[in-house]
Amino acid sequence: MAAVAPVRVRFDAVSLEFATAAGPLRVVENVTYEIREGEFVAVIGPSGCGKTTMMNMLAGFVTPSSGKVLLDGRPVAGPGPERGVIFQEYGVFPWLTVRHNIAFGLRLRANRKPEAEIRDTCERYMRLMGLADFADAFPKTLSGGMRQRLALARAYAVRPEFLLMDEPFGALDAQTRSNMQNLLLEVLATERKTVMLITHSVEEAIYLASKIVMVTARPARVREIVEVPFVYPRDESLHEQPEFGELRSHIRQAVMTEYRAQQKQARRNSGLN
User: Fold this and answer.
1) 0.85 surpassed by pTM
2) Residue ranges of the chain with pLDDT lower than 50?
3) What is the predicted pLDDT for the residue at 3?
4) Residue 64: how many CB atoms within 10 A of its CB?
5) What is the pLDDT of residue 188?
6) Residue 237's pLDDT is what?
7) By C-alpha distance, which of 204, 210, 181, 201 is closest to 255?
């Protein structure tokens, strides 16, 4: 029997509320789940339900109002170099070239490396991400897909143990998004990471993840946790399998139920029937 991977992250009865002019706004409520070493966990639910807030708590950007977010058994106290965060808005510096964007994190105090190692690391990730021919280009000259590849290269270069990804492919066209998903799977096959992905796409969650956490309309609560039954490596043919379609239907129905609940909540809050 294969050994069970250790738990790296635990959301333990986590709740979060913000103060607003209208009073406290509960965003996350009593959320409990685990992320094990090497898991790819996708979190899916309606827009504005609190998914990104969960990721921000693990990243160390936000502190829970109650409960704990534990990393290796210790409460998350702030950001750390072992957690690489990738946002939808192309997290690159427009005034730096591709090469210098990748090198940036390697020159910070927390990750500082010798210059020879920095050069080797930049060359490695530019090749891996198909950016070698654009080493001296600035981000404004790159396509959206290339800028997101650069964001991935920057995150990978500092060798984080965790990738925290907030809708990283949401702004891309369908073909580029598909290519980026495949690239991510290829990279993860050679450089194993533990991943938390925030997404609105049911297909993306199933295709990429080993576990899917479905959350409710705000305040976010865990509605259901689904263990994705498909083995790695994966390719595009997975989308055509009947089991993929069945799981997609199940998750889509649950998500749409929460969308309707959110719309009903919004109408009630605005005084509409």
Assistant:
1) yes
2) none
3) 76
4) 21
5) 87
6) 95
7) 201
Domain ranges of the chain: 1-82+162-176+193-273, 92-160
What is the per-residue pLDDT for 249? 97
d(CA 217, CA 95): 39
The topology under which CATH files domain 1-82+162-176+193-273 is: Rossmann fold (3.40.50)
Return the HEC string of the chain: CCCCCCEEEEEEEEEEEEEECCEEEEEEEEEEEEEECCCEEEEECCCCCCHHHHHHHHHCCCCCCEEEEEECCEECCCCCCCEEEECCCCCCCCCCCHHHHHHHHHHCCCCCCCHHHHHHHHHHHHHHCCCHHHCCCCHHHCCHHHHHHHHHHHHHHCCCCEEEEECCCCCCCHHHHHHHHHHHHHHHHHCCCEEEEEECCHHHHHHHCCEEEEECCCCECEEEEEECCCCCCCCHHHHHCHHHHHHHHHHHHHHHHHHHHHHHHHHHHHCCC
∠ Cα 165 94 119 (to 5°) = 80
Strand order, beta sheet including 7-20: 23-36, 7-20, 66-71, 74-75
What does the pLDDT read at residue 1?
Answer: 55
Residue identified by tokens 């913000």 is 18
> Which pLDDT does position 114 carry in this prediction?
86
